[in-house]
Amino acid sequence: MKKVVVGLSGGVDSSTAAAILHHQGYEVIGLTLWLMKGKGQCCSEGMVDAAFICEQLGVPHHIVDIRDVFQTHIVDFLVTGYGAGITPLPCSQCNKTVKFSPMLDYAQQNLDCHQIATGHYARIRYDETSDRYQLLRALDRNKDQSYFLYDLSQEVLSRVVFPLGELNKSDTRKIAADHGLKTADKPESQDLCLVESNGSMRAFLDKYLAPKPGNIVDLDGKVLGQHDGIHHYTIGQRKGLGVSAAEPLYVIELDTVNNRVVVGDRTKVCKPECTVHSVNWVAIAAPNTPIRAEVQIRYRSAPEPVTVIPLENQRVRLVFDEPQASITPGQAAVWYEGDKVLGGGVIEQFS
After folding, report:
1. Which of 98, 184, 239, 344 shows the smallest number of beta carbons within 10 Å?
2. Is there a catalytic annotation at residue 42?
3. Cα–Cα–Cα angle for 304, 172, 102, rounded to 5 degrees
């Protein structure tokens, strides 16, 4: 019998993934990572629900305390980034450094198990020609999470199962109901776990970063208003600026040296290219020449045609066919060929 460790957050997706694998004859072991204290599906309530699901399925349940890892790799990572005027993407960082690798390490070292599974909406396929594991979009494009998984290594991809990759969300809830799972009707988590536990990203950041008042200015340096900390703003932001103008204004720069938020109209927030660092190539080895692809610069942004130009030191330059708005330093850029993730990385700060 195949053995698999299933990451359980206490939500319907991970619960259904466990039920599917159990029904398929796998020896399922539930594993919940204790990330932080407080409410939210990743924390106390989630651990209780995950334990109940394992009891329903008749499988063992393990809880691993990695709060120190989460503090270092996510909380400190976010606070440092926002303080430096960038907008870090915690989910891909969390998947790589907090969830998948620690799960696999624990499974192999403590449970004699070499395969893990989660409730993510994505697919994996092995390609014999390239001898690489490919990460593919989920069948349900509205739930597809491949964008957040671009940084997983080939080693991790070779050991992961995504049982929900071929399902729609409605299918998932039906399967959960058919198995009588407690989480079948559980509301879906809409925000980051840190937002759920703190009420808002602003409230979370205010716990760590002191107010630092400064000016909101236009491109000519004219003062339009005041802010209480650049960490409350992000490139491309339009709402909540607290300034009025004849036309909509967007944040186009966070000037950390002068503690200013620089705003301008939409034409100023569009950029023809950007550079990306910490690139992870997934479906293909790092190319030596430019390639064509479609790129997403935000999770919900539409894929846009792009030329990916390899640079040194795990960096690339992305040249868009059409200038793009809201290219935000710290966010992920992930490029695809159809449903296949070719690679991805982190958008660099503009010079």
Report:
1. 239
2. no
3. 75
